[in-house]
Amino acid sequence: MGVSYKKLWKLLIDREMKKKELRARAGISGAAMAKLGRGANVNVDTLVKICFALDCEISDIMDIVRDERRQAETAVNEREP
Prior knowledge:
Helices cover about 60% and strands about 5% of the residues. It is mainly alpha-helical. The chain has a single domain (about 1-80), classed as 434 Repressor (Amino-terminal Domain), CATH 1.10.260. The chain has a two-stranded antiparallel sheet with strand order 1-2. The longest helix is centred in the last third of the chain and has 13 residues, at about 65-80.
């Protein structure tokens, strides 16, 4: 099992917010943002800070996915510049 943060990236696009702005509003580190970008596991505190900054629920920014789907998403993310 893994996680997908596609909902987070879509939410940022919908709100016309850049990752840098989210980092500042949520008070999260660049390392945490990089982990999110790679689809890696992050601390729950980081996810809570993001939810408070975006005024949303955890289910609005992430999904739990089976390993097969996660591997496919990781392959797609690695191909993007």
